[in-house]
C-alpha cells in the first residue's frame, strides 16, 4: 500500500505530461498546415502570389462605370479564368497547353465588355511557360505574344499600349522561366543530397556489419572452444574448468566492448594487443603459434586496420584451416608494413567468406592491399599497408 501511495502522484504527473504532449501536438498540427499554406501562397515561384495582379482587370472601370451586363459577364469570365488557373496549377509538359490556350481565348472574348483583358493574356503566358521542353515553352510564349499584339492592333489600341503589353508578357515569361529553372536545380540538389545521405547510411551499415563480423568472429569462437573445454574439465579438474569459465566471461566482456566500439565507429584495436590476443586464441584452439617481428611505430588508425586483418586471418585459421601450426610475421620494407599469417592446414579447400571480403574492402580504403595464397600445404594471408610506419 505504501508503494502504491508513493507511485500514485508520479503516475498522475506522467499522465498529465502525456495528455499535455498530445494536446500540444494536436494544437500544433493545424498551425503547421496553416504555415505550409501561407508559404505556398507567398512563394514567388508558385502560382498564387501572382493573383494579386488580377484586380487590374477592373482598372478601366475607375473612370468608366461598367453596365450591369458588362460587369456580370466580366465576373463570370474571371470565375472561368480562376477555374482554368487552378486546373493548370501543378501541371507540367503538354498538359498546360489546353488551359493556356483557353485562358488566352477567354481574354479575347472579354474584350467587348471593357475590362483590362490584357491582364489575362499575361496569365495565359505564365501558364504557357510551364510547357516542357523549354524550347517549346518559348515558342508557345512567342505565339501568344504575337497573337495578343495582333488582336490589340485590330481593335485600334495605341502602339505604346501594344508594345508595353508585349514587354510585360515577356518580362513575366522570363522571370518565371528563371524561377522554374532555379526550382528544378534546387530539386536536383535535394535529390543529390538524399542520394549522398542514402549512400552514407549504406556505407555505415556495411562498416558496422564488417566490424561486427571481424570483432565477434574470433571472440565467439574462443568462447565456444573454452566452453567445450570447461565441460570436459568439469569432472576431472574442477579448478581448471573454473579458470576456463572465468576466461569465457572475460572474452564475453571483451566482445561486448568491441561491439560498442564498432557501433560508435571507434577503431581502438592495436596490432600489439591483437598479436597477444592471437596467441591466446590459437592456443585455445590447439594451434601452435609462432610470432616473428614486433609492432613498430605505427599510427593508431593504420595499426587498427592491420589488427583487424590479423584478427580475421587468425579466426579463419582456428575455424576452418584444421591447422597444427601457425606463423605470424610482422615486417617492414621501404615504408610498407606487412602482416603475414601462414598455417599448415587444408589450404587446398580454401574458400573466401564475408570476413575476407571485409578485409578486401577495408585495406584498400586505407591505401593497402590483401594477398591470399592457398595450396595443399596450407594458406598464406598477407596484409600490406604503405606508410604505416612512423
Largest sheet: 5 strands, mixed
Amount of beta strand: 5-15%
Shape: rod-shaped
What structural class do you assign from the helix and strand content? alpha+beta
* Fraction of residues in helix: 55-70%
Rounded to an integer in angstroms, the radius of gyration calculated over CA atoms is 39 Å
Instruction: Show unreliable segments.
Output: 1-31
Q: Enumerate how many helices there are, as a single number.
A: 10
Order of helices and strands: HHHHHHHHEHEEHEE
**Sequence of strands across the biggest β-sheet:** 1-2-3-5-4
What is the rounded distance between the termini? 68 Å
Offer a quick outline of the entry.
The protein is α+β, with helices and mostly antiparallel strands and 390 residues long. The protein has helices at 2-42, 68-88, 97-109, 118-128, 134-154, 159-233, 238-264, 271-284, 300-321, 354-365; strands at 288-292, 325-333, 336-343, 369-375, 378-386.
Tell me about this structure.
This protein is an alpha+beta fold and 390 residues long. It is built from ten helices and five strands; from the N terminus they run ααααααααβαββαββ. Helix content is 66%, strand content 10%. α5 (134-154) packs antiparallel against α6 and α6 crosses α10. Strands 1-2-3-5-4 form a five-stranded mixed β-sheet, with helices on one face. β2 (325-333) and β3 form a beta hairpin. It has helices at 2-42, 68-88, 97-109, 118-128, 134-154, 159-233, 238-264, 271-284, 300-321, 354-365; strands spanning 288-292, 325-333, 336-343, 369-375, 378-386.
SSE layout:
Elements (H helix, E strand, L loop, with lengths): L1 H41 L25 H21 L8 H13 L8 H11 L5 H21 L4 H75 L4 H27 L6 H14 L3 E5 L7 H22 L3 E9 L2 E8 L10 H12 L3 E7 L2 E9 L4
Amino acid at each position: 500500500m505504501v508503494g502504491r501511495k508513493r507511485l500514485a502522484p508520479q503516475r498522475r504527473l506522467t499522465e498529465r505530461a502525456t495528455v499535455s504532449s498530445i494536446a500540444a501536438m494536436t494544437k500544433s498540427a493545424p498551425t503547421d498546415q496553416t504555415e505550409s499554406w501561407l508559404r505556398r501562397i507567398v512563394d514567388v515561384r508558385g502560382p498564387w502570389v501572382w493573383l494579386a495582379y488580377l484586380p487590374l482587370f477592373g482598372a478601366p472601370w475607375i473612370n468608366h462605370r461598367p453596365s450591369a451586363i458588362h460587369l456580370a459577364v466580366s465576373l463570370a469570365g474571371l470565375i472561368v479564368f480562376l477555374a482554368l488557373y487552378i486546373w493548370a496549377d501543378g501541371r507540367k509538359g503538354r498538359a498546360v497547353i489546353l488551359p493556356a490556350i483557353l485562358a488566352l481565348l477567354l481574354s479575347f472574348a472579354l474584350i467587348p465588355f471593357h475590362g483590362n483583358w490584357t491582364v489575362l493574356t499575361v496569365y495565359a503566358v505564365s501558364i504557357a511557360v510551364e510547357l516542357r521542353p523549354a524550347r517549346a515553352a518559348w515558342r508557345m510564349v512567342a505565339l501568344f505574344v504575337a497573337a495578343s499584339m495582333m488582336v490589340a492592333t485590330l481593335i485600334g489600341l495605341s502602339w505604346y499600349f501594344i508594345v508595353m503589353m508585349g514587354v510585360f508578357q515577356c518580362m513575366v515569361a522570363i522571370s518565371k522561366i528563371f524561377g522554374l529553372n532555379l526550382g528544378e536545380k534546387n530539386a536536383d540538389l535535394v535529390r543529390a543530397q538524399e542520394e549522398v545521405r542514402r549512400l552514407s547510411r549504406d556505407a555505415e551499415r556495411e562498416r558496422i556489419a564488417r566490424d561486427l563480423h571481424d570483432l565477434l568472429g574470433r571472440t565467439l569462437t574462443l568462447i565456444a572452444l573454452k566452453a567445450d573445454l570447461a565441460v570436459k574439465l568439469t569432472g576431472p579438474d574442477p579448478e581448471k574448468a573454473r579458470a576456463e569459465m572465468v576466461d569465457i566471461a572475460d572474452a564475453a566482456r571483451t566482445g561486448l566492448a568491441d561491439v560498442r566500439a564498432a557501433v560508435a565507429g571507434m577503431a581502438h584495436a592495436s596490432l600489439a594487443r591483437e598479436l597477444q590476443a592471437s596467441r591466446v586464441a590459437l592456443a585455445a584452439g590447439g594451434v601452435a603459434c609462432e610470432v616473428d617481428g614486433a609492432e613498430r611505430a605505427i599510427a593508431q588508425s593504420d595499426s587498427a586496420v592491420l589488427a583487424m586483418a590479423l584478427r580475421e586471418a587468425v579466426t579463419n585459421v582456428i575455424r576452418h584451416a584444421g591447422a597444427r601450426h601457425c606463423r605470424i610475421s610482422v615486417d617492414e620494407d621501404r615504408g610498407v608494413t606487412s602482416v603475414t599469417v601462414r598455417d599448415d592446414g587444408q589450404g587446398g579447400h580454401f574458400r573466401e567468406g564475408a570476413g575476407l571480403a571485409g578485409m578486401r574492402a577495408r585495406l584498400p580504403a586505407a591505401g593497402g592491399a590483401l594477398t591470399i595464397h592457398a595450396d595443399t600445404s596450407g594458406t598464406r594471408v598477407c596484409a600490406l599497408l604503405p606508410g604505416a610506419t612512423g
